[in-house]
TrEMBL record:
Upper classification of the organism: Bacteria, Bacillati, Actinomycetota, Actinomycetes, Micromonosporales
E.C. code: 2.7.13.3
Domain PAS positions: 14-85
Domain of life: Bacteria
Signal peptide (UniProt feature, chain positions): none
PROSITE patterns from the UniProt entry: HIS_KIN, PAS
Any single GO CC term annotated in Swiss-Prot or TrEMBL for this entry: plasma membrane
Keyword annotations of the record: Kinase, Phosphoprotein, Transferase, Two-component regulatory system
Catalytic activity: ATP + protein L-histidine = ADP + protein N-phospho-L-histidine
Protein name: histidine kinase
Listed CDD domains: HisKA (cd00082), PAS (cd00130)
Localization in the cell: Cell membrane
Organism: Actinoplanes teichomyceticus
Amino acid sequence: MPSPTVRVTCGEAGLHEVPAVLTAALEAYFAFDRHGRVLAWNPAAETTFGYTHAQACGRQIEDLIVRPQSRPAGRAELAALAAGQSGHSLGRRLQWFVRHADGHEFPVEMTLTSTDEPTGRIFHAFAHDVTSAHRASRFAAVETAVARGLAEAASSDTAGAHVVTALGAHLDWPVVELWLVDEQRQLLTCAARYARSGLRLGDFVLDELECGTGLPGRVCAEATTCWVSDLQTSPGYLRARAAGRIGLHVAIGVPLCNGVHTLGALCVFGDRVEEPEETLLSLLGGLAAQLGQYLERRRAEELAIELARTKDEFLAMVTHELRNPVATIAAAATLLQEELAELNLEQPLRSLQAITRNAERLSVMAEDLLDLARLESGHLAIQPTDTDLAAIIGQAVENAGPAAQAKQLTLTVRLPRRLDLHGDPVRLRQVADNLLGNAIKYTPAGGAVTVTAGLDDTGQTVTWTVADTGIGIPAAERPRLFRRFYRASTALQQRIPGTGLGLVISRTIIERHRGTIALADHTGPGTTFLVRLPATT
Ligand code: ADP
C-alpha cells in the first residue's frame, strides 16, 4: 500500500508531495529546488531551525539557515548541484554549522539526496542538531587547555581566567563566569569572566553577590548543580532581564568543592533555550572538580608562603624584642648581684637571684625559638665535618656532671673509644645536651641516667640511647611528643619548667643528618630516647 502523502503548498513554487511519515519524523526534513527555494519543511525542521512551515516555504534556503560567512560557498555548491554535479554534499553525510531563526548558530548532521520530478530536480535534506555530540567531542580540547592553563598559571587568578576562556572559546558559550566564596566577607566574588568577542555585557556584569542570590549564589548555597533552561522565562533570577538584553537564555551553574566546603561556582550562559543534558553536566562537573582541587592546592601553597614570611618576621621579632632586652636584664642583674654580695645585703640579693634565674629561662626560650625558626626556614644550615660522636657525648656528660651530682643521680656512660660520623659537632652537642639535660631534669633525686652509643651489627648505623628512671611519659601522649611546645602531663603536674622546644630542635637536627630520633620501648619507670645516625664506613 503506498504511503499517504501530505500536500504542501509552497507559494509559487508549485506542489511537493510529502509522505506523512516525514511529517511525523523526528529528523528535520526540508526540500528545495535548483534555485534554492524551499519546497517542503516538516515539523521537526520547524523546531530545529525556528521557522514555521509558512515562514519557510518559498524562501531561499540560504536566507533561512546558512550562516552569512558560509553563503558564498553555499551559492557555489547550489550552482554545482543545479548543473547536475554532486558537489561536496550530494549523497554524503556531513556536519555543518547552521543558523537558527533567533540568530544562534549550531552544528547539524545532514544528508542530501535528489530526485527528478516533472517540475525539475528537487533536493531533499535530512538533518538533526548535534550540539551535544559536538560539545562532547570538543571537551577533550577543553580539558587539555584547562590542564595546560592550570599547570602554567602563576596564581589562582590566572588559573581561573584560563578555565573560563577555555570553556567559552572551545565550547562557544557566550559568557562563562567563575565565582569564588569570600568567607571573610560572606560574599561571592567574580574571580574570572569570559565574554564572546563583540558581546557587550552592560548591566549583566556584577562583581559581587550576596550568598544565596543569583545563579552563582544559589549554586554555592545549595552546593548542587543548577540548570535554568531559559533565564528569560525565569524572572526569579537576579540578572534575568540583563541576560535577556544580550540574548542569553540557558544558564548552568556547577559547584566547586574540595570535598568539605563549597569554594565557588562555575557558571556558563548560552544563547539558546536548552533542556538539561546529562553528558554536559557530568563534563562540567568533572572540570569543576579539577578546578576545585587546583584552587585548594594553590590556597595551601599560598598559605605556606605566607607562613614562611610570618616565620621570618617572627625571627626578627624574637631577636630584637625578646632576646636583646632579656640579655641586657640578665647582664645587669649579674653585675648587681656581685655588688650586693660584697655589701652582704641578703634580701635584695635573693630578689636579684630570682631575676637572674628567670631572665636565664627567658633567654633559653628565645634561643630555642630562634634555633627552631632558623632550622625550619633553612636560615641555619648543618655544617658537617668528620666528627667523633663519642667525644661529643663525653663532653656533654662531663658538662652535666654537676647537675646530676646535685640530684644524687647515678650517671652511667658506655661509649666506644671513637665513633666516627660525618656531622655538625655543634648541633650534635646541642642534641646531646638536650637529651641528657632532660634525663636529669625529669628524674627525681636518687634515680639513674644511662647513656650508651655504638655501632650496630651492620656497622653502618650509630645507635645512641639516653635512658632514665624518671617521671616517664604516658603512652597515650608519646605520639605528640615531638610537636612544638608540647609538654607531657607528667612534667606539667610536677611543675618542672621547660619550653617544649628542645625535642623538636633535636629531631630537626637529627633528620638533617639523615638520622632518626624516637622514644624506645622502656621497661620499668622512666624514659629512653633512641637516636640512629649513619656512621662513616
Ligand atoms: P622541655 O623539656 O623544655 O619542656 P623538650 O622538647 O625537651 O622541652 O621536651 C618536651 C617534653 O617532653 C617535656 O616537657 C617533657 O614533658 C617530655 N620529656 C622530654 N624528655 C623527658 C624525659 N627524659 N622524661 C620525661 N619526660 C620527658
